[in-house]
């Protein structure tokens, strides 16, 4: 008989917290999609809009789905432990695949347009977070899903797995906000340059 994920009673307000987190996460995804669609031209792979695939995929993968994966053990604490672990792992797999698509999109966009890769703080933070996320998933799979690790070894590693999972999620949020700030600064910089060109005297007509 499979053990349960946790027999501790759930806080009475937990369903409301979970519902709020899902509403907030979906709002972030919808807002990102609306921003890309209304103000950045939309999304496409074989065009200049390929870059827009990157922020949408990263928000869906490393913010929304990763957050849901962390909630699994709180929401399904009385379900069979193996079922909860499999769901936790699958959500991380989907998050990783979607984030990988976003990463490929931005590198492919840079290659097609002759732009340099990893030229900003956001770029380096993003690569660091992605690598840490992948390593965290591999180690977690090896310890908790792939048969072979002893119970004592799993027990010793579990606190580190929880700590690094929460840390990587917070780093993902920070990196996403850093990327949005970078996009805003680029946009404002272009607007400022255009305004300067409009207001500057034309030497040909002086």
TrEMBL record:
Keywords: Cytoplasmic vesicle, Electron transport, Heme, Iron, Membrane, Metal-binding, Translocase, Transmembrane, Transmembrane helix, Transport. One of its GO terms (cellular component) is chromaffin granule membrane. The keyword NADP does not apply. It is a multi-pass membrane protein. The keyword Metal-binding applies. One of its GO terms (molecular function) is metal ion binding. Its cofactor is heme b. Transmembrane reductase that uses ascorbate as an electron donor in the cytoplasm and transfers electrons across membranes to reduce monodehydro-L-ascorbate radical in the lumen of secretory vesicles. It is therefore involved the regeneration and homeostasis within secretory vesicles of ascorbate which in turn provides reducing equivalents needed to support the activity of intravesicular enzymes. This is Transmembrane ascorbate-dependent reductase CYB561. It comes from Equus asinus (Donkey). The gene is CYB561.
